[in-house]
Write a structure and sequence with these properties.
single chain, about 270 residues, alpha+beta, Rossmann fold, 2 domains, 8-stranded mixed β-sheet, about 25% helix, globular
């Protein structure tokens, strides 16, 4: 059954309804935001999820090696293998918890999303995010505090990731694994945005976590809070999600995802 979405979060409702109606497979056609909505209607169920990638970047498709073209991806469906994976879950002080397959960011990358021009995005795709990012150079950002166990880190940007790929072009969390049961949390030193072009060059080369000022931590749970009480926004799988404070934790054995055998072989 073909079920087009009509509004934000509609895909979550559609997925939940399909599962309640006895569906034995759900295919999500769209970008990472659409896939995120679908998996939020599926988390905890045994029904497998397959993706037909489209959208601006589709980080999940890049991560697992699926073609960005949905027709080419559809042709590979008979080869895909089911794997049970963990999901992340972010809980803000207000609103319902939200699951994610890829990442949750707080600070800089969420601030960039608030400045992305839809007109530029429609015309240029991913370039719109770079334009928005460089527009923040020299502008003040509110710091946040990441707490992992007894470790406390102040930063302008914290990425909690389940995948290596970031935005389709960058590698930030180089030790993250979609098949693992933890996150890689990456934080960046600096009280201004002027250091971030340096960090960007490292991410383009896939060496971000080896740069001075970059910290990488493996964990299953962390908390995030504004360092000065000002509003600090979060994003989940590339969509704005809320504002701090928030708790992020792993939910084991949460989703069955259909994956290419080549990706599974590389991940062993």
């Amino acid at each position: 059954m073909l079920c087009p979405t009509a509004r934000p979060e509609h895909a979550t409702e559609l997925a939940g309804t399909a599962i309640a109606g006895g569906a034995d497979l759900i295919l999500a056609a769209g970008g990472d935001g659409t896939v995120n909505e679908v998996l939020n209607g599926m988390a905890g169920s045994a029904v497998p999820l397959a993706i037909l990638p489209s959208g601006t970047a589709n980080v999940l498709a890049c991560e697992v090696g699926l073609p960005h073209n949905p027709l080419r991806a559809a042709a590979l469906m008979p080869q895909l293998e089911p794997r049970r994976i963990a999901l992340g879950r972010i809980t803000h002080s207000t609103g319902a918890p939200r699951h994610f397959a890829l990442m949750a960011g707080a600070g800089l990358d969420a601030a960039i999303l608030t400045r992305v021009s839809q007109k530029i995005k429609n015309a240029t795709g991913k370039l719109a995010y770079y334009v928005a990012g460089f527009s923040l150079l020299g502008r003040p950002l509110h710091p946040l505090v990441v707490t992992v166990g007894d470790r406390r880190i102040e930063t302008l940007f914290a990425l909690t990731s389940r995948v290596r790929n970031y935005g389709g072009d960058l590698t930030i969390a180089s030790a993250a694994s979609l098949l693992g049961d933890d996150f890689e949390v990456v934080t960046f030193a600096g009280r201004t945005t002027w250091r971030y072009p340096f960090y960007l060059t490292g991410a383009l080369a896939g060496k971000a976590t080896s740069l001075p000022g970059v910290n990488s931590i493996r964990t299953r749970r962390l908390t995030l809070a504004s360092a000065n009480g000002s509003a600090v926004f979060t994003q989940v799988d590339g969509e704005l999600a809320g504002s701090l404070p928030a708790t992020i934790e792993i939910v084991p054995d949460a989703l069955t995802l259909l994956l290419p055998p080549q990706f599974l072989a590389r991940a062993r």
